[in-house]
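Minutes, project check-in
Item: structure for the 376-residue chain
Input as provided by the requester:
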Amino acid sequence: MNHQACPSQTVQISCALTSIPVDHHLQEEAMGHNKLLFSYSSTISFLLILSLFDPIVSLFPYYGGGGASGGGGQFDNNFYDRSCPYLQVIVRNGVRAAVKNDNRIAASLLRLHFHDCFVNGCDASILLDGTDVFKGEKNALPNRNSVRGYEVIDSIKADVERACPWTVSCVDILTLAAREAVLLSGGTFWPVQLGRRDGLTAASEDSVSAQLPSPIEPLENITAKFTAKGLDIKDVVVLSGAHTVGFAQCFTFKHRLFNFKGSGQPDPTLDASTLIDLQKTCPNEATSNNKLTPLDSPSVYRFDNSYYTNLMKNTGLLDSDQALMGDPITAAYVKSYSMYPYLFSNDFAASMAKMSNIGILTGYDGQIRKVCGSVN
């Protein structure tokens, strides 16, 4: 590589370009298309010079991620291969650093992705801060003081912007981060299609509560909410398996310990020894409401199939968890996943791929946010 000093800023750009390794396939193709190559090179040179005076100008297309077709609506696994080739490495390193600093964050990133996609589709609307125009989704009851991981996505986005300005959507970063969080917890890999664009607004607080499944809802209500998103009863069971990692606050299940359905008695389906342990952790007083309890005590931070084993033993923590054993269809899935971990891994990958494509924006819809907490 030539390290000769460049006399001016414009020439420095030319020097930088000459240091890039030659792609011989492109070189051979260029030999047959000299006029086209000259025109393309002139355009690039113009953009490079213009960028010296206007930092908004970038070689990376604003209308999409890049990919083979830019912002024309392409949506595939290779969308950023040319425009941001190190994207997945940047996301992986960002999630790894976050997990090293906070071993709860892997489950939180997965939940953040779920709460985004289930409210008006996967569009990173959950990442938007409130404004004078709308309050945003962060303060809706299911998210307030509960959903975590915003700062991790913001940090990764900043790293991505340094490498590939105005190129990668916040929602694609969140989708990849959820996959990496599962992998770092010992879970399965699944290919993530890319090319989503960020939404321009957020849902109302009431809409968030209406769309997100609640841990105290009957199974038929939860299934209906999944069906409304294009998912099915199998996806209910599979995606509930994400509770193999993470924690729940006591108030989300404490009614099962002391006054189940107004009976004044504990939930009779809850294992007796588990009941005693939970009553010690979450005593029947308001001060215990925000205390945390593992959703899957046998493997708190490990993504595996023990969640289903727990349900078979009547030690599921939430109503919505143990309710899966009260329906013959969902109970059959639970039994299969408790016996065959690879079956769960395969089905979880498929269900996550389905969920991450709910209501997405592509092409010229939405935008590529520069900062995930606000629209451009």
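Outcome recorded: The longest strand covers residues 247-249.
No further action items on this chain.
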